Each structure stands twice: as C-alpha cells, then as structure tokens.
Amino acid sequence: MTFKALLIEKDDAGYRASVKDVGDEVLGAGDVTVRVAWSTLNYKDGLAITGKSPVVRKFPLVAGIDFAGTVEASTDARFAPGDRVILNGWGVGETHSGGLAQRARVKADWLLHLPPPLSERQAMAIGTAGYTAMLCVMALQRHGLSPGDGDVLVTGASGGVGTVAISLLAGLGYRVVASTGRLTEAGFLQGLGAAEVISREEFSHPGKPLAKERFAGVVDAVGSHTLANACAATRYGGAVAACGLAQGMDFPGSVAPFILRGVTLYGIDSVMAPLQRRQQAWARLAAGMDLARLDALTQQVGLSGAIEAAPRILAGQVRGRLVVDVDG
Questions:
Q1: Which residue ranges make up each domain of the chain?
Q2: Do residues 297 and 192 lie in contact, with contact meaning Cβ atoms separated by under 8 Å?
C-alpha cells in the first residue's frame, strides 16, 4: 500500500523536497497509525523543506511538524480506530516522519484527542503556530497580566503565531498593538482585533537598553533586535513571551529591563511541552477561538503547494495560516 508524502531526501545528489508515492517503511516506529486528513505549513516546516536550517536530521524523512486525522490502528488502549487526533511537535518532521503525508505512525504519548467542536481542518488552521500563540497567552495570564494593565505588543503580527495571538488576545479583552513589516495588512490585522498597527522598523534595529515604557506584555515571534527592543519598552513588572526566531536566534539586549523594571521573559516551547499544558491549550483554543476569524486568516494548499509556499513563509510573505490538504 502506497500513499503520498512530502519527502525530504539528502544524498550525493543534494538536498531536495518532493511529493512521492511511498510505503510504510518511511513512517518509523509507533503505537498508533493515523490516516492524516490535514496538515499545515509552519515556519519550521519552511526551514525543513528549503533546507535553510538543519531542521531535518534523518533522511529520508516525511516533513511536517503537525497533523490532524483519524486513528487507523492502535496498540495503545488510549486510542482506538476512528478516534480523531492531533499532534504537535515531539520531533515529528525533524527526527521522526511527520504530517505532510496521507499516513503517519507515532507514539501514543505524542497524540491528543481532537477537542470538539474543532474539525481536523480547523485544528490545522490553528496548527502549531496557533497552539504556540495560546501557550504565550497562557504564560502572560499566569504572570497575572489582565486587560486593564495596558497594551500588549504582538510582533511578527502578519504571520501564523501573530495572527492567532491577536485574535486570542483581542477576544479576551486586551488592547493589542500589532507590529508588522507589511503595513498594507493593517486592515486585515485590525479585522482580527488589533487596536493599533505599527511598523516593525520601530523594533528591528539596535536600540537603547531601556526605552519608554509602552507595553504591559509582549508576544514575540521574531527574536534578535526585535525581542531586545520589546523587552526594553515593557512596563515595570510586565512580561514578554518569546517563541520565535524569524529575525535571528541572538538576543542583542541588556539586563536593564529585568533588573531595573522587573520585567519577566518567558521562553515558550511548543515541541516538548508537557501533556497537561498541551491539553489545557487545546481545550482553550477549542472553546475560545473565533472560528470566523480563523477562517479569515487561513489559506489552503496541497502537498506540492506546500513546497512552493515554503520560501514565501520564510520571507514573511504568507499572511496568517496555511493549511495543507494532504489529498490535494
């Protein structure tokens, strides 16, 4: 039995990504086999498909760090054929074949039951980017940040994490300031709930150790100078949730915001997050995500379309979320 997969290969001919008919031998070990319905394209998938960063560490490997689908077979009592499931992270699409395929085989410990009322497509419209955005929101709320405390900055606002973060925060009553490199998207971002849209140029270059106190909280998916400047502009006792590195992995900043203003920097990891936190995040997404807004920020491609879109997502040219129809 063969099925379609977006396969990453590396050999004497070089590094390449292509859609192929493959067999179960590419899937690897696992307790549960899933008929994948939908996957999605995240920033990390863009790196894997293009080879711009050493995301994939085993070859050949099916790309895709997340998926949603239906259990076909299981040797674990927690899952039975017909169960709808989702997966994010755990090294899938990096060291274990992932979700950009019609089938996947994974450890039962990596799976979650899909919470109602979400469909498989809606779950992947949220995807790892949206799940990460919720982890950021949860971190800010654990810190004690409330809507009355002041503005929340969202960087990389036009991307996957940013668009979902705006929708979530606005839905919870926060006043959101969206930072983007595409001011032409201002109307779109305001439609998601942003109260104000500003240029990323305000944050993307070297800045002062401390800036004017502007934000009670920050969701940053960019890193580098943007993260350093966001920390410098955070109010006394505020919090910054950092989850991305689109500008870079470096942090060219100062300890000043942390020791002079008591700012807290939270690192957000979606790959190895514990089960209880994952369940809480997805339950909140299922209950609180505005599905009309979700549809407005979602585009759809097939497996070959994911290859074509990979360079664009790295260049910041993709608005919102891309879901992948693995049968398309």
A1: 3-114+297-325, 128-267
A2: yes
219 close to 137: Cβ distance less than 8 angstroms: yes
Check whether the bond before 115 is cis (ω within 30° of 0).
no
Percent of the chain predicted with pLDDT > 90: 92
pLDDT at 133 (0 to 100)? 97
Could you give the angle at the alpha carbon of 314 between the alpha carbons of 311 and 320, nearest 5°? 105
- Residue 223 has a pLDDT of 97
CB atoms within 10 A of CB 208: 12
Q: Using one digit for the tens of pLDDT, what is the confidence trace for 39-96?
A: 999 999 999 999 998 899 999 999 999 999 999 999 999 999 999 999 999 999 999 9
Contact 40, 323 (CB under 8 A): yes
CB 18 within 8 A of CB 307: yes
Cβ atoms 193, 174 nearer than 8 A: no
Q: Which residues of the chain have pLDDT under 70?
A: none
Q: What letter represents residue 211's amino acid?
A: A
Amino acid in position 261 = R
8 forms beta bridges with 17, 61
Over its C-alpha atoms, the chain yields an Rg (Å, rounded) of 19
Bridge-partner residues for 248, per DSSP?
223
Q: Are strands 14-22 and 3-11 parallel, antiparallel or unpaired?
A: antiparallel
Q: How far is it, in rounded angstroms, from Cα 291 to Cα 286?
A: 9
pLDDT of residue 171: 95
In DSSP notation, 17-66 reads EEEEEE-GGGT---SEEEEEEEEEE-HHHHHHHHTSS----SSSEE--SE
CATH architecture label of 128-267: 3-Layer(aba) Sandwich (3.40)
Q: Which CATH number fits domain 3-114+297-325: 1.10.10.10, 3.40.50.300, 3.40.50.720, 3.90.180.10?
A: 3.90.180.10
- Check if the beta carbon of residue 147 is closer than 8 Å to that of residue 173: yes
Instruction: Count CB atoms within 10 A of the CB of residue 37.
Output: 20
